[in-house]
């Protein structure tokens, strides 16, 4: 529920010194709205996960995505914007994210493509 403005004001209040200037530097964006998990779009994602991600698919539950995603743009077009990636990551993937040697395994890449193909098929039945 925080915004760039509310956090900036909170920092100003904590510092409580008019001689210290607090400002936002660089890129900033308010968080995108929380999307419902009770609607047909989330149900289509849940169904697709269960259909495509193996004999024991991961649990399907909401969580907070850290970092900027395209949801900040899509949330202007729809009241639901889900941030999801079906690509299984290797254990050390976070050390390589957006840097040297970032990669997916071929198996993960193929499973991710199968997921998106099936999600598009499942989305065709949405109300």
Attribute tags:
127 residues, mainly alpha, 40% helix, extended
Characterize the main sheet.
none
Quickly give the structural class. mainly alpha
Report, as a whole number of angstroms, the end-to-end distance. 30 Å
Task: From the alpha carbons, calculate the radius of gyration and give it in angstroms.
Answer: 19 Å
Strand content: under 5%
Walk me through the topology.
Blueprint: H1 4-15, H2 40-52, H3 71-74, H4 93-96, H5 106-123
Short summary of the structure?
The protein is an all-alpha fold. It is built from 5 helices and no strands.
What does this entry look like structurally?
With about 130 residues, the protein is an all-alpha fold. Helices cover about 40% and strands about 0% of the residues. It is built from five helices and no strands. Helix 2 packs across helix 5. The longest helix has 18 residues. The protein is extended and about 60 Å long. The mean pLDDT is about 85.
